[in-house]
Amino acid sequence: NPWNPLMGTASIDDDILTVLWTPEQLLQKVCELASQITYDFSSSPSSSPPVVVGVATGAFLFLADLVRNIRLPVAVDFVRAESYGSGTIAAGAPKISCEVKLDVAGKHVILVEDIVDTGNTVSCLISYLEGKGATSVSVCTLLDKPARRKVHFKLLGDGKFYSGFECPDSFVVGYGLDFNERYRNLPYIGVLKPEMYE
Ligand code: 5GP
Ligand code: MG
Ligand code: MG
């Protein structure tokens, strides 16, 4: 890559075993999701535009690309839920460590996640938003690992489930997803080399 200023030296890409989705494939899918959301939330003219709530930090790039392609004047906010201590093993029930700033009472909320794995995080956040008085909660996740689901969460009101790609049952990084807070800045999503966990 002639644009890589570190050409010839160690690169972040060297830590990746396989690329699952390229930046082009990610953007294509994000645009499809944004079109579907635009369509679904335009059809009812009486309801106010939705509040898009990203789950920090993992959803930050996905949310940025998603909202730029939603053709409605949505509000944007973040919530923080900690489910993993460090590494790749879930640390039990997540807890909300940073609350939403916006008032979501009476609003349609779209919760934006990088990945739904066991379903614990999304389930906890749906209850949280229900407690804040949201009219409906939809979930828009870039990746879904249905094989690993433990919690069969229920969306609030007439909320919908939007999902980009089904993810194989391996630990993935990039496009917001981390391993010990690293690799979030990869522009693609891939599988880390096993030796990077050690
Ligand atoms: P859940 O609560 O559904 O089990 O997990 C949700 C969270 O776990 C995600 O938001 C994400 O932060 C993390 N997670 C689950 N699977 C992966 C993965 O394959 N890679 C990374 N980087 N994080 C994951
Ligand atoms: Mg997440
Ligand atoms: Mg993480």
Description:
The chain contains three helices and nine strands. It is α/β, with parallel strands linked by helices and 198 residues long. A hairpin with a 5-residue loop joins strand 3 (75-84) and strand 4 (90-98). Helix 1 packs across helix 2 (60-67). Bound molecules: guanosine-5'-monophosphate and magnesium ion (2 copies). Guanosine-5'-monophosphate (5GP) binds at residues 55, 58, 83-84, 90, 94, 113-121, 171-173, 177-179. Residues 55, 58-59, 113-114 line the site of one magnesium ion.
Globally, the shape reads globular
Count helical runs: 3
The portion of residues forming beta strands comes to: 25-35%
**How many β strands by DSSP?**
9
What structural category do the secondary elements indicate?
alpha/beta
What does the radius of gyration come to?
A: 17 Å
One letter per element, helices H and strands E, the order comes to: EHEHEEEHEEEE
- Mean of the pLDDT scores? 92
For the largest beta-sheet, the strand count, sense and barrel status come to: 6 strands, mixed
Uncertain regions: pLDDT < 50 for 5+ in a row? Answer: none
Task: Report helical residue fraction.
Answer: 10-25%
- Distance from N terminus to C terminus (CA atoms, Å) equals 29 Å
Order of strands across the widest beta sheet?
4-3-2-5-6-7
Distinct ligands: guanosine-5'-monophosphate, magnesium ion
